[in-house]
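ugh ok so i messed up the first submission bc i forgot one of the chains. this is the corrected input, ALL of the components this time, i swear. 792 residues overall. if the numbers dont match what u have on ur side tell me asap before i send this to the collaborators (the ones from the other lab, u know who)
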Amino acid sequence: MITMAQSSVFQIRTEDAPKLPAPVSTSGAVGWMRQNLFSSIGNTVLTLIGLYLAWLLLAPLVQFALIDAVWTGEDRQACLAPEGSGEHVGACWAFVRAYFPQFIYGRYPAEEVWRVNIVYALFALLLIPLAIPKVPFKRLNAALFLVVFPIVAYFLLTGLVVGGEVVLPIVETRIWGGLLVTLVIAVTGITASLPLGILLALGRRSQLPIVKMFSVIFIEFWRGVPLITVLFMSSVMLPLFLPDGMTFDRLLRVLIGVTLFSAAYMAEVVRGGLQAIPKGQYEGAMALGLGFWQMMRLIILPQALKMVIPGIVNTFIGLFKDTTLVLIVGMFDLLGQIQSAFSDPTWATPVTGHTGYLFASMIFFTFCFGMSRYSIYMENLLHTGHKR
Amino acid sequence: MTIRDNDGAAPEARVSLVNDPRARGIFFQVLLLAIIIFVGWTIVNNTIGNLQRQNIASGYGFLDRTAGFGTSQSLIEYTESSTYGDALVVGFLNTLLVAVIGISLATLLGFVIGVARLSKNWVIGKLAYWYVEILRNIPLLLQIFFWYFAVLRAVPDKRSKWSLFDTFHLNVAGLWMPEPIYAPGAGIVGFALIGAIVASLGIGRWSRRRQEATGQQFPVFLTAIGLIIGLPVIAFLAAGMPITLEHPVFVETGPLLRQGFTLGTGMTLIPEFLALTLALTIYTSAFIAEIVRAGIQAVSHGQTEAASALGLRSSPTLRLVIVPQAMRVIIPPLTSQYLNLTKNSSLAVAVGFPDLVSMGGTVLNQTGQAIEVIAVWMAIYLSLSLITSAFMNWYNQKMALVER
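and heres the new structure output, hopefully the right one now
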């Protein structure tokens, strides 16, 4: 070959030319910026306006929350600007630090707080494997979470007296508060409303006219009224409905209201799942000779519920945010507890309120954003098969 | 079980009554009905007993009694000597006011953010993304508190102000602005506006029919804008300018108590109203933005390509191809957001804005007529939601894809 090539006038390339990298202007960071930020004059202007807006919003926030912030201190003196200096002090994190136990446990007695901690730990321990699709024993896990955990948590939180002997001292619900109340309301509301919602959804699709009418009226009624009026109703009207002398704990009254309210929303979510099941599944189940409940339990509901996990999570996010409304009927959830801490004269400064709201926003955002990410993740995971 | 259905039943395949689906259906429904009636009867019975013990007369007679409490904002004439019924009407109108203003602003803002979310510009897209994520993941009540306690309390005190164009003034007492004063003859301007709107609609129909018949186009949009702005202006000038602006009076000198804005001059938006409307608008706009984004993304790319293959430019493509199809997806969830905003306006009670729930709460506390007041609340919110869902169903039927 070589001799031929040397003796010939033709030139044959025997090896590839070296691969050149793509031009700098179309690849890497520069290329990306040219494509996404500065592709035209209008785009450049937009980018600059956007950056300016971001700067306007972020700079004061960082200044307030981090740079000018006061991290330690015993009382309001630490968070006050020097007299007459005209300076601004940033977030008073010392206040949040001092009140942190109250924000998390309310006025739960300090020597009993370990009980709340166990409940929190159990909750996390059972929820995390339930939320990760790959972990096995889902059925057992769900049973533990939905049946055993509520009972254990109930006795741990409220106390236990066996035959006159105090095993766990009674802690009344009116001194509960903070994140504890928020989580108790949200989690109880969602777990209790799930079975109720499933029944209502089945009822709404039922062929029995009275069952169907009852479900429709129930669902539309609760979905049509604001949660505030439901809470007012449960705290003012529910005592009127009960026989004389029979009273309910206030937390329980709120829980009943919240459960009925979210059951209606849950029913609509579940109904969406039921509607998405192809008719062939029903027909197949019937052809196998399954009765209605067997068909639902073994064939329809497992598919339908799996499909609406994102919807359930979204309902939960809504409920979690709505728990803040209980402060209007005089209970202290996380926001209520923070709001009530503002009135403490030891920490009264011009920045206490801002700090408290910032802290509350961060907690709520972390929870809700995390859950919505999870819901999107599940949606992508479940996207297989059913979509055509 | 005594129910039998052997009249006219086919003689073959006699199943036991327990396994007959019809008999079972009837049995369970009778059971459900019995439970409902029993629970309802118990509740009514207990309630009557409890009310008698507390000496509360039920019924709506209290609506005619004098309320004896004032309000910070009212759209109708309302004094302390007005009745409880008036108080509830004031609350209802305030709820509607917040809802209407909130809905219009939230729609505008939501559409802008929703489109920005789809922007090819990375910075704008990310900004819109974080706007949506942050605002919809923070409870509305917290946002209302933030605007009310943290922002609107940090503005100048009663004796000073921040001014914009020397027309809008903000201080702790609220947002002050000029109030239009209608002299006799101002009605003509209103009639001119209505006339212009009717004429624009007529022209729109005429031009569509002409285009379908002849293919000729007519600049409907420009004509309509011209009519709607021009006609009232002409009427305004012709009637001798019957509408004047009354600016709020700001006193800077004199006794301390007199300093600041003089009450009753100009128009004031109270801080409770501002905080509630701002929070509702911004919170709902985040949800609307997501709906708009999903709606636009739901229109497949092939539609855009087909439109450009037909020779449409980008503006008519958007107007004639994308938006009508996106609207079909957008409208149903949008209506339910409107409904949510209306229901969420009941959070007014947390900052003391006199809406339906807040006024009703005061009435409830003063009279003890819990059942009646809560029934009024539920009836009003329920009818609003039923009207909305009726509209939604009608719209869905009208817009449903007619397939071959």
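quick check: Chain B touches chain A through 53 residues (CB under 8 Å). that seems consistent at least. Chain B has a mean pLDDT of 81.
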